[in-house]
Design brief:
Blueprint: E1 2-8, H1 15-23, E2 29-35, H2 42-47, E3 52-56, H3 62-72, E4 77-80, E5 85-86, H4 91-99, E6 104-113, H5 118-126, E7 141-144, H6 145-151, H7 161-172, E8 174-184, H8 187-192, H9 194-209, H10 214-217
Parallel strand pairs: 1-2, 1-4, 2-3, 6-8
Antiparallel strand pairs: 4-7, 5-8, 6-7
Length: 222
């Protein structure tokens, strides 16, 4: 079984579409939503999906929420999915097929956006490259439960937890890319400006790889 773990914080506009994209998958799965103290209707919307397990935390923090969800999950494979991201049709089946390969310990999908911008399509093409520099949490990271427990889960850092965990995972075995794309929200790009947001994203990742603390980087990524 695959456990899909979704951290949320004020995601009333996106969470329903995310859950629907999972609910329609035929493979055996469970959905665990871990809310970090939403003040909107996120929790009420989640409760409308009777099959979803909802956990509520006083303290927010994506790394904290995802680790908590993993503790409550029962599946042998863990998929960490953002609340503004939708799985493609047959996505869970693709995960199971990839994880059945020799020495595969983790992987992700590639990315597409919900806005028909040529620039966003261009940026999304880089997500097909199987390197940590082009692979992030919004692509849907999946890992075996055994491996996740072995490495101690996500690091307790406020930013780049998705990049940091890959460093450890890629040392243990094969990290794969599924030949399908998840669809994620372009809201941050449209709000901040597509080029400006991409330059910020790229700059922060390069600085992190250069050794700058994620606590310092968090100041520039609200």
């Amino acid at each position: 079984m695959i456990s899909i773990i979704i951290p949320t914080l004020n995601e009333e506009k996106t969470i329903a579409n995310c859950l629907i994209s999972i609910r329609d998958q035929p493979e055996s799965h469970e959905i665990v939503v871990v809310d970090g103290g939403s003040t909107d209707n996120t929790a009420a919307i989640v409760r409308g999906f009777s099959e979803v397990k909802l956990l509520r935390m006083i303290e927010k923090g994506r790394w904290r929420q995802m680790n908590r969800g993993a503790m409550a999950a029962e599946g042998q494979i863990l998929l960490f999915l953002h609340a503004d991201t939708q799985l493609p049709e047959g996505g869970l089946g693709k995960i199971k097929a990839q994880m059945a390969q020799t020495r595969v310990v983790a992987g992700s999908f590639s990315l597409s956006f919900d806005h028909a911008s040529p620039l966003l399509r261009l940026f999304a093409r880089f997500s097909r490259i199987n390197l940590s520099l082009f692979t992030y949490g919004d692509q849907g990271l999946f890992v075996t439960r055994r491996t996740f427990q072995y490495i101690g889960g996500f690091a307790e850092i406020p930013l780049m937890e998705d990049v940091e965990i890959q460093k450890r995972l890629r040392r243990l075995g094969r990290f794969v890319k599924v030949d399908q794309s998840v669809v994620t929200s372009s809201r941050r790009f449209l709000s901040s400006g597509i080029v400006r947001q991409q330059l910020l994203n790229t700059g922060l990742v390069l600085l992190y790889h250069a050794g700058v603390s994620p606590y310092r980087l968090k100041r520039y990524y609200p």
